Amino acid sequence: MHIRPMSETKGKGLEAGLTNYGDPAFAAYLRRSFARSMGYSRELLAKPVVGIAQTASGFNNCHRGVPELVEAVKRGVLAAGALPLDFPVISLGEVFLSPTSMFYRNLMAMATEEMIRGQPMDAVVLVGGCDKTLPALVMGAASAGKPAIVLATGPMMTSRYRGERLGACTDCRRFWAKYRAGGIDSDEIETIEGRLATTEGTCAVMGTASTMAILIEMLGLMLPGTAAIPAVHADRLRAAEATGRAAVELIGSGRTIDKIVTQASIDNAVRALLAVSGSTNAVVHLAAIAGRLGLKVDLDRLNALSDETPVLVDLKPTGEGYMEDFFAAGGVGGLLQRMGSLFDLSAKTVTGETLGDWVSPDAAFIDPAVIRRADDPVSDKGGLVALYGSLAPKGAILKRAAADERLFEKTARAVVFTSLEDLSARIDDPDLDVGPDDALVLQNAGPKACGMPEAGYLPIPKKLAAAGVKDMLRLSDARMSGTAYGAIVLHIAPEAADGGPLGLVRDGDRIRISVKERRLDLLVDQAELASRRAAMPAAAPAPPRGWAQLYQARVLQADEGCDLDFLRARG
Ligand code: FES
Question: Which of 143, 153, 356, 445 is the Cys-Cys partner for 478 at CB 3.0 to 4.6 Å?
Fold first, then answer.
């Protein structure tokens, strides 16, 4: 038996990127020898190699199905004539990480990039799903420059509680708010705790994970129609097998992420984000992906698109349905068909087709209750808007589709919390001087301060919740879970810990918001702000070591995707 010369194969396979012993022939011989110890035939070891970046982890419930998906990808790769080799990358389970999974997204992106670059693979399948994993995988693969295709884990199915459908995690928050307000007792909340997340897969609503899967399909980086397939559906395994086959097709095609994704693709993704009323986090992740490619998510452009893009998808937290409904209603294909004229259909995709080729020419079934017609939208304007002003010189984000519109045009008195610790210590203090017309302000929860946790969904103070207050104006430099809702202004940039004016707000200041004018202003005169700035304490010392030190020194603000400055595309 002889190993075929590499000229007969499509890729370079295991002979690429040899270990440096100063003798390439020896390195190739040693690699083949060690690879054979895994039981592969020499014939298989001579094939092109498809790497499979897999993210199964005992600390990631959303990725429980990844091992089965990887096996299905392998079937597809083998059937198409290549050798599948899976490898682990860092996995980020949203609720298992402290201080927040966002703090580790760039670390996962770096690990992904280096493992794709450092190991001999001709193409790579990126398997992920939970909030930060898909953006991290795409960021890393975009920088690594090898052909890549994404496979999402898919969303969870809903469950039932007393006849009511429940799905993580909008319902988690709804019941917790009810519990905080004294509407249900501890026995009931414990029962509900066991019903919220009952299958493998990502959160069941239009949270960050679902939004990112949809946007990555819109960017042309996964097979059409695969973003929304539920995690437990047999179609997901078929999608995995097809993704494996497609990865083999990618070898030698030159279709790397930087060749597929253009500014038009980014615009398409922003439009899709607005039309599905997706997670605010997606703005940050999309900006980070764009930044890896020398592209940009411009917040003025987002506002312009928001004014002309209707919300068509009726899912929680904005509307009523769950991801399983979106899949049954037609998924991303249904959205493309409904909104085709608003997208740039000439955008390229990983299959070599254009986005327009993915629009079904025949009238496939689209459930109008879930993916509305353009003449019957959930809202005639997009779900998100960016705000600018003296309080947010580099911008802030508001999910207007999931908020009480009565709070959009007002001047409010600030009630300030200087940190997350201060917030948890005082928010439920019966003596806290706060009313429903005030604005709760959280400082020092941005990227440099503490990794930008999803703390922007400040709880309504207990005494106000008990009195029936359901929403109030809340502002911070933090993020918010994609499954949350409320009049919540997020991602204020620059953050307080980076010298942003948010850090100068004091109790009793007046803050003016106007969603109509896209403004967010601190109504305090410049002399007063200058004297407050001069009296600010010195910055806390840098973290003493490791990732925390590197992260804090090099992380960018939300408008640049919170990537590390040296990881963005040069120039
Ligand atoms: Fe993983 Fe929501 S916790 S997607």
Answer: 445
Q: Are 192 and 166 in contact (CB under 8 A)?
A: yes
Are the CB atoms for 273 and 211 separated by under 8 Å? yes
Rounded Cα gap, residues 211 and 227, in angstroms: 9
Q: Which amino acid belongs to residue 158?
A: T
Q: Which atom of ligand 1 is nearest to the CA of 208?
A: 4
CB 227 within 8 A of CB 99: no
Ligand 1 touching residue 130 (CB < 6 A): yes
Task: Count how many Cα atoms sit within 13 Å of the Cα of residue 279 in the half-sphere of its side chain.
Answer: 30
Q: Estimate to the nearest angstrom the gap between the alpha carbon of 269 and the chain centroid.
A: 12
Is the whole model's pTM more than 0.70, yes or no? Answer: yes
Identity of residue 418: T
Q: CB-based burial of residue 179 (10 Å sphere; 0-12 exposed, 13-18 middle, 19+ buried)?
A: middle
Closest CA to 313 of 395, 244, 401: 401
Given a cut of 70, the residues of the chain with pLDDT beneath it are 1-11, 362-363, 571
344 CA → ligand 1 middle, Å: 30
> Coil, strand or helix: which one is 507?
coil
> Going by DSSP bridges, is the β-strand pair 473-476/439-442 parallel, antiparallel, or unpaired?
parallel
For the CA of 129, the nearest atom of ligand 1: 4
The protein residue whose alpha carbon is closest to atom 1 in ligand 1 is 130
Q: pLDDT digit string (tens) for 443-457?
A: 999 999 999 999 999
Q: Which two tokens stand for residue 330?
A: 């037609």
Q: Which domains, from first to last, does the chain contain?
A: 1-47 (no CATH), 48-157+199-358 (no CATH), 159-193 (no CATH), 388-536 (3.50.30.80)
**Which of 489, 460, 459 lies closest to 476, judged by CA?**
489
